[in-house]
Amino acid sequence: MLIVQNIYLPLTSARGLASDPGSQNPADDLVHLSMPVRSQHEQESNSIYFITFTCYHWLPLFQLTNAYDTGYKWFDYLYTQNIRTTGYVIMPNHVHVLLYFSQMPTSLNTIIGNGKRFMAYEIIKRLTSANEETILAGLKRKGTDKRTIA
Fold first, then answer.
1. Which residues are 51's β-sheet partners?
2. What's the structural domain count of the chain?
3. Residue 70: CB atoms within 10 Å
4. Is 126 within the bounds of a domain?
5. Closest by Cα among 98, 92, 93, 59 to 75
6. Residue 16's domain spans which residues?
7. pLDDT at 68 over 90
8. Residue of 104, 101, 120, 95 whose CA lies nearest to 6
9. N- to C-terminal Cα distance for the chain?
10. Residue 122: closest CA among 58, 66, 52
11. Is the pTM of this model over 0.85?
């Protein structure tokens, strides 16, 4: 798997989750959260979710393949599904995005998984075109070595 970590957090319910219950800054709550990768999370309509995911071993795959446009294409697709991107940053090795859902889809995990899959296929295609055999071999090893798959 190319992109390996998800964090979904409904910002409307982020308050009070930090170790400091008296904190007045919602961002303090985000710092202390640890969300499992493959878990179901409370899904609420009319909410903004903070979502982040990283490339395998923090490799700068977006930068190496100039794949920033894949994020923009995913955001365009989400727009057609009535999901609004309210903020984002695409870094060389990870993505943060704020998504607004007026109506929550059946599965937030499916929405995010499909976006990651779309970006991963394009990154692999670009790595292949650029003959980045060393990186591709490392990613392939990850996909076939059952001891490293969570």
1. 8, 97
2. 1
3. 21
4. yes
5. 98
6. 7-148
7. yes
8. 95
9. 10
10. 66
11. no
